[in-house]
């Protein structure tokens, strides 16, 4: 897995093209032995005489012990050491019988001196090659080291697997897709080491810590280390003196630990020895040198093997040390609180509340929950309860959050505290428990408040709830009212601004929406401590704008920024799921249906118990499945979307309805799909969601309805066409995409292939490979019907666009592609590859005349006149010639 380049390097070395061999070095378990085995296993026995040598500690002490599998049992007596070496070389040459000699030496650092000398001597023979593996940090015999210092062989470092390779290996091990958060955590724990990764997965599987939902495997995060894995780590750590063990244990519980802080707790020479042994490493962080364990699993093993009493003492000691020198960094508060909590010395509720807020601001939901609960238990009162309930809400535990809030309902005397209680309870009941009456309840209670700032806070929450319930005019009025109140807090004002930004996006005011989001982000330092969850509203407004504008680069940036990293690392599932939906959307527009489906399934798995975005995730899954021509899965996903979608997230209805249309079209019900789209367009026009309306109208274009009437009748009794309405909206909706959609619609309505190809070029300028291919397919269809000589060039253009996609099946592509039977496809493919009629007939058990008849029908269907044109035309057939489906 992920070793193609190294395998090629090994094969080149064995061919003689690059020296006489190669040695791979790396840590234990990195995959050196497997690579060596795979590299020599495929060598043909008639050309190569291969000897596999597995050196070990048991053979290291005896002469030629490393080559005991190769040399004869009886050795000649009375020969000098040099004579024995010459004899051994002659034996190998005799056994090779003229073939090329290959010595494949695993763990060559364990070779005894005579064996190492023999390997070096063999490598100098003209017909011999030496390949092998070496473990990092081991003493290498001088004859082996001389192999690359003398230029006989190459030496290559085998690096850890990349995150992508780790994910692929996890998928292979588990037999299915793994969610990104689980893959990232397991990748960090294994540090890209395949052996350790396998052991981790085995341990988690044995303990039932993997769950499967919608075909996606998710790790709970709980880890029971298998004895084999613990033993492997213990061997690497080795025996430690008490001083060095203290270093390793302190770093295990405190990493990253400042070097100066560590020196206050242990002897400096013990730190230096631990670093020399490869147990710890130094990492520069700003102007401080931090100490970390050399491997993440060292910490897992050390922490589990440390007695409870010593664990608590060490963590309390770390907290004392950091408090003594002063909490100078932002993360120091969180570290002290974590150590105090784990050591049982946490007594200050204010400190725990502050730390819980810091953890929540980093979207570390599990840690924030533990700290907030500890603060409540320590007497933190209302402040701790409010924070804990908020965290529980975003940890997908709304019922528990409601219980925490109700327990402090009598402790809400003043307006400021009551407004906080009302808004948190409103969040929990509206989004967490899907209770629609929440909006009226919060509005009634908010009206009773006399403090202007407290009232503004409640109104800001009411505004975003009403937007999600599709009461856009009321939402806008409330949000604008909050912005107009000088007494409103920064957090309340920016929440109101997010509501307006989201509304502006769906109304097509994309530039104003972007400006509003930028204003919110500019004040993030002022509202993050009060409302860290406001970031989700920011991202929803921003993501909606980017999706409606077709800004794939912007989506890529959004899903790769700090929020995405924090959400994945901190188990903030709403954030992770939402970003996965955006990834799926962007991949779909690029025509990458496989990536789109994987991302959508990941979102469905992460949001399976959510009341907020679960329906949207299923809708995107339906879109991806429909794009792949999987009508069954698309229908299943729509059924799940209907079951999971909360009415309190009504603002998302355009995405769900567009997905329903895609599912109908994939199932062959084009009439039903068109009728649904017309209904959706009418609804969007009535709601004023013209940003969404442009996409729905373009879906009609994709279904061949560019000239169909839409909307109400004009004064003269006529109705505008889809193309005309899109042209009208292109002057109202911001961005580059609406004019391009209108251009595509006009070209389709006018039957203008040149304009369709120009539209395809415009789509590709934005990276939108799927609509580009559909526009080009429309041009090919028209040119083929007209028997135009330009059809061949258009087919080449379509083939190039389809090569950017993978498996794509859409009505627009299929309508422009004549249907070939399976037999016709077989004949066409063989003919395009240069097969004669007789040769094709013999291969398919047909007569030459029958093949000719098939070819005549194929040429007529595809509008081609030669084998060269046929070959180009086949590449434009989605799912066969033009995608990787074959």
Report a brief summary of the structure.
This protein has 46 helices and 13 strands. The protein has 886 residues and is α/β, with parallel strands linked by helices. Residues 813-878 form the HTH luxR-type domain.
Characterize the quaternary organization of these chains: single chain
Strand order across the largest sheet:
2-3-4-1-5
- Mean pLDDT, all residues: 89
Unreliably modeled segments: 881-886
Q: CATH superfamily assignment of the domain at 4-157?
A: P-loop containing nucleotide triphosphate hydrolases
Q: Which radius of gyration do the C-alpha atoms yield?
A: 34 Å
Overall shape: flat
CATH fold-level label of the domain at 4-157: Rossmann fold
> How far is it from the N-terminal to the C-terminal residue, by CA?
23 Å
Which structural class best describes the helix and strand composition? alpha/beta
Largest sheet: 5 strands, parallel
CATH architectural category of the domain at 4-157: 3-Layer(aba) Sandwich
**Class of the domain at 4-157, according to the CATH hierarchy?**
Alpha Beta
Count the E strands: 13
């Amino acid at each position: 897995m992920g070793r193609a380049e190294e395998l090629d390097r090994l094969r080149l070395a064995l061919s003689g093209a690059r020296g006489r061999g190669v040695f791979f070095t790396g840590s234990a378990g990195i995959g050196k032995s497997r690579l060596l085995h795979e590299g020599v296993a495929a060598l043909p026995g008639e050309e190569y005489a291969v000897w596999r040598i597995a050196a070990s500690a048991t053979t290291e002490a005896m002469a030629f012990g490393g080559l005991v599998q190769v040399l004869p049992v009886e050795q000649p007596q009375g020969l000098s050491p040099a004579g024995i070496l010459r004899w051994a070389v002659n034996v190998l040459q005799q056994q090779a019988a003229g073939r090329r000699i290959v010595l494949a030496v695993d763990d060559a650092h364990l070779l005894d001196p005579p064996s190492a000398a023999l390997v070096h001597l063999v490598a100098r023979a003209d017909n011999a090659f030496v390949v092998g593996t070496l473990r990092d940090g081991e003493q290498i015999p001088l004859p082996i080291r001389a192999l690359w210092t003398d230029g006989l062989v190459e030496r290559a470092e085998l690096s850890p697997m990349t995150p992508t390779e780790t994910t692929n290996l996890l998928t292979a091990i588990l037999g299915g897709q793994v969610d990104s958060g689980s893959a990232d955590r397991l990748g960090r724990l294994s540090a890209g080491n395949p052996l350790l990764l396998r052991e981790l997965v085995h341990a988690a599987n044995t303990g039932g810590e993997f769950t499967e939902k919608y075909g996606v495997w998710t790790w709970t995060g709980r880890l029971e280390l298998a004895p084999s894995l613990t033993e492997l780590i213990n061997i690497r750590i080795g025996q430690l003196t008490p001083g060095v063990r203290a270093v390793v244990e302190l770093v295990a519980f405190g990493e990253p630990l400042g070097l100066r802080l560590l020196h206050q707790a242990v002897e400096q020479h013990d730190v230096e020895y631990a670093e020399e042994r490869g147990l710890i490493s130094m990492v520069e962080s700003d102007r401080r040198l931090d100490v970390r364990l050399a491997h993440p699993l060292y910490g897992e093993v050390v922490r589990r093997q440390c007695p409870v009493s010593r664990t608590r003492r060490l963590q309390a000691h770390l907290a004392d040390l950091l408090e003594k020198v002063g909490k100078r960094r932002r993360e120091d508060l969180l570290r002290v609180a974590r150590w105090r909590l784990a050591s049982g010395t946490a007594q200050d509720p204010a400190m725990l509340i502050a730390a819980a807020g810091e953890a929540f601001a980093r979207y570390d939901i599990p840690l924030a929950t533990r700290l907030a609960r500890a603060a409540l238990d320590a007497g933190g009162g209302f402040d701790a309860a409010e924070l804990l309930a908020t965290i529980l809400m975003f940890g997908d535990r709304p019922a528990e959050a409601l219980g925490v809030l109700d327990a402090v309902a009598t402790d809400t005397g003043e307006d400021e505290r009551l407004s906080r209680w009302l808004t948190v309870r409103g969040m929990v009941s509206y989004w967490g428990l899907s209770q629609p009456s929440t909006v009226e309840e919060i509005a009634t209670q908010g009206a009773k408040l006399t403090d202007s700032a407290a009232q503004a806070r409640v109104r800001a929450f009411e505004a975003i709830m009403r937007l999600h319930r599709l009461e856009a005019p009321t939402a806008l009025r409330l949000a604008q009212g909050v912005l107009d109140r000088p007494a409103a807090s920064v957090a309340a004002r920016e929440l109101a601004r997010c509501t307006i930004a989201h509304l502006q996006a769906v109304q097509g005011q994309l530039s104003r929406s972007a400006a509003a989001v930028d204003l919110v982000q500019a004040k993030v330092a002022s509202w993050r401590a009060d409302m860290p969850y406001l970031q989700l509203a920011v991202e929803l407004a921003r993501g909606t704008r980017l999706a409606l504008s077709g800004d794939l680069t912007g989506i890529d940036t959004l899903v790769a920024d700090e929020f995405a990293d924090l959400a994945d690392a901190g188990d903030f599932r709403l954030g992770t799921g939402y970003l996965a939906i955006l990834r799926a959307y962007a991949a779909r527009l690029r025509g990458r249906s496989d990536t789109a489906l994987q991302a959508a399934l990941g979102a469905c798995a992460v949001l399976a118990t959510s009341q907020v975005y679960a329906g949207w995730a299923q809708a995107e899954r339906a879109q991806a499945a429909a794009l792949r021509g999987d009508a069954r899965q698309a229908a299943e996903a729509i059924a799940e979307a209907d079951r999971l979608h909360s009415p309190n997230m009504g603002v998302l209805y355009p995405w769900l309805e567009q997905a329903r249309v895609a599912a109908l079209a994939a199932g062959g019900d084009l009439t039903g799909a068109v009728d649904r789209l017309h209904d959706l367009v009418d609804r969007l026009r009535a709601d004023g969601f013209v940003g969404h309306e442009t996409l729905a109208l373009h879906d009609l274009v994709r279904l061949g309805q560019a000239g169909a009437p839409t909307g109400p009748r004009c004064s003269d009794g006529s109705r505008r066409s889809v193309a005309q309405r899109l042209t009208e909206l292109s002057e109202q909706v911001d961005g580059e995409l609406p004019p391009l959609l209108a251009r595509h619609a006009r070209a389709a309505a006018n039957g203008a292939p040149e304009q369709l190809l120009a539209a395809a070029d415009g789509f590709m300028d934005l990276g939108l490979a799927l609509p580009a291919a559909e526009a080009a397919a429309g041009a090919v269809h028209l040119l083929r019907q007209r028997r135009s000589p330009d059809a061949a060039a258009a087919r080449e253009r379509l083939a190039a666009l389809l090569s950017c996609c993978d498996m794509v099946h859409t009505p627009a592509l299929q309508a422009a592609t004549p249907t070939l039977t399976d037999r016709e496809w077989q004949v066409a493919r063989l003919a395009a590859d240069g097969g004669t009629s007789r040769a094709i007939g013999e291969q398919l058990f047909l007569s030459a005349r029958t093949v000719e008849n098939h070819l005549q029908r194929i040429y007529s269907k595809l509008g081609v006149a030669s084998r060269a044109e046929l070959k180009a035309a086949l590449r434009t057939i989605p799912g066969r010639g033009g995608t990787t489906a074959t």
